[in-house]
Amino acid sequence: MNKFIIKLILLSFILTLTIQVVAAAEIIGLQCDHLVRPIGIDNPEPRLSWKMNDDRRGALQLSYQVIVGTDSLNLTGKLNVNFDSGKISSGSSLVVYKGRALRPFTKYYWRVLVADKDNKLVSSTISSFETGMMGMENWRGTWISDRNDVDTRPAPYFRKVFNSGKQIKSARAYIVASGLYELYLNGEKVGNHRLDPMYTRFDRRNLYVTYDVTSQLKQGKNAVGVLLGNGWYNHQALAVWNFDKAPWRARPTFCLDLRITYTDGSTDVVTSGNDWKTSLSPIISNNIYTAEHYDARLEQKGWNTIDFDDSKWKGITLRASPSRNIVAQSMHPIRNVEEIKTRKLRKFSDTTYLFDLGRNIAGVSKLKVSGPEGTAIRLKHAERLDSSGRADLSNIDVYYRPKDDKDPFQTDIFILKGSGEEEFMPLFNYKGFRYVEVTSSKVIKLEEKSLVGYFMHSDVPAIGKISSSNPLIDKIWWATNNSYLSNLFGFPTDCPQREKNGWTGDGHFAVETGLYNFDAVTVYEKWMADHRDEQQPNGVLPDIIPTGGWGYGTANGTDWTSTIAIIPWNIYQFYGDTKALADNYKNIKQYVNYINSTSKDGLTSFGRGDWVPVKSTSNLEYTSSIYFYVDADILAKTAKLFHHQNDYLTYSALAAKIKKAINDKYFNSETGIYGSGVQTELSMALQWNIVADTDRQRVAENLAKRVAADGMHIDVGVLGAKAVLNALSDNGQAETAYKLATQDTYPGWGWWIVNGATTLLENWDMKATRDISDNHMMFGEIGAWFFKGIGGIKIDEENPGFKNILLRPHFVSGLEHFTASHESPYGTILSSWKRNAKGVKYEVKVPANATANVEIPVINGKKVYLNGKLIDNNINISAGSYFFEVR
Fold it and tell me: Does residue 302 share a domain with residue 182?
């Protein structure tokens, strides 16, 4: 055999092996409580999840085995492990830990063994999670603060020098604060988080954060420093929501445990306590609502290092714990996610400059500047400009109630020390802005590069994407995501400037947009805990959460506070994870029982109604009662899921009663019209399944007619904006939905975009005199509708978490191509279609271990083909890639 033939044989063998390796299943994406290798978790029964990477047609998980232990080497032999599920014949890829009780401050290793479609065993790599305190009793430190009162403006420094006399193996810092903090070790900031800890009802629950600080400690002397900010804990500014009167309000305080493990196995804990010292910092004022003031002349260089002379610093004061519920902050943190350079600089004078970032964001600006000592620089952050081109705050400062002009709204103040180039970026504040107007008390020279903006938000991974042949669609989607992220700061907010409040309605109107586009489950789980903290014993919830007391009024009804049911249900639908429903089940029940006790004959008027409509109003009892039905229906389905049979019977009967009452009073069976027949009333009945199946087509046709009568433009407020596009596209009127979504004249989402918006607005009318924030999320359902109504990626309620995917694309006129992808718990779902001379090519990808039901629209006698073979337009498919043709 000659060498050439031998080489061919070897090459063929290598290629065969390569193909086999590529084709084989791989276990990826291991997560614990929806985080990758988290440290400092408190959940005694954490959820462990994974994905299969297997591109073969019909890829499937036949069984799994999860093994957890404290020694990674023992996982292979399965000896002395904490949890071994044994071989479970199941396609589930999310398992709740049910092993030996987890110990605090312990690193656990885990892996999963999966049998693929050929019953071949595939092992994941080893992942880990690490427990934190696991209970209040394990804290060693004491809460400390300085000796100033709530009206003291400057932020306090704290420091301590300690000795670690042995060789360090690992170290963890556990810190909890009421207020905000920045933690330092040996002069360096710990971590890259911003605005920790997340905002909670401080007198009922406090969050601690865990950091791996091994690399920042050294054998011998070390210095630890803490800088505290007010945050929502000590709200010194006055506004209509009375946060200055919050029952928890006090001077910021913190508690720290720094646990050091040495190579000899011994441990040491450095704690907050009487041996710390404190001093006021150069941050002479900080307010989460207004801005931050910094006097660089007051800097104490090296304040957080070993050799700093703190002889003039004062002693601390010991404080009681603000609450008896200190738990881990197990969520994606807030970060400076994106740096945005100045797009345009306008100079008005030697003391006045205007920086334009070119887009609206939430976050902070950073200024580099030189000037004489004592120069006072003001950085006013605005969304709009006045007629002279100066920063205009009139659309967002309307709820601020200052006593004087010492703390101007969204305006940082930076006082120079006069020593060359200086840099300022606020630590304990964020704003909503596009423009930064910089004015100074003395002449300064600024350039475009002198200022950058930082887009700050909870750093949730992006998992959804769309692209199309219509640039307007892509811009609306991009702007929607910008607004969503601008309003994600450990909880969903309404706007990042005027209020920063966790309005419940805005939160659930946008939840599907959030979950299609971002892996935001950890933020929502935290916010639902805030709901539980705020719920009254009678079941009532405020319409802003968290709250200092405001919001338990007369309008905080079902259309807003149905978050308690809608968000846990959506988490279950998107992730197949029942924890949020289990955690909130009693709260949903309390809430529904309260509404039922105050309703008459199954109807309620408890609510705000269709907020900020274009022109038509909707009946309040009708819209509130629909959400009452939604809550009762979710409660009944959840009861069934958890096998609470009596509750299931009770609340399914209640849901049926509410639906009947709505239809009896508001549905005209002769005309097929709900209420007065406006877009919101017709679309809500369709969206929330109030309409009987026999009447759906007629009601949808009436909705399409109404839209046409309204000039093919929306005429809805927030409730209608949540419903109208889905109601149309889900019921045979996708063409109308698309035309409605893409109008570029008033009113509509496109109208905002063509007029320069880079985020969603609060009012359809860009010249309105109230409700005119330029960065609001309450009209944001359109960001989810792109996935559902055009891409057709939909949830199968009976197989949640996209275990089975419903693919219902719409090849709407006016689009040449459209692609939507979503990273589901099982992997990437792709739905992509493109027109050609013969018809439409439709590409589908179903991730391994999932299935799909595909329903392809066909008109004008066209037929559906798969791999050249004629097929039915409604088929079930297994995992894999598919290429359909409609011709």
Answer: yes
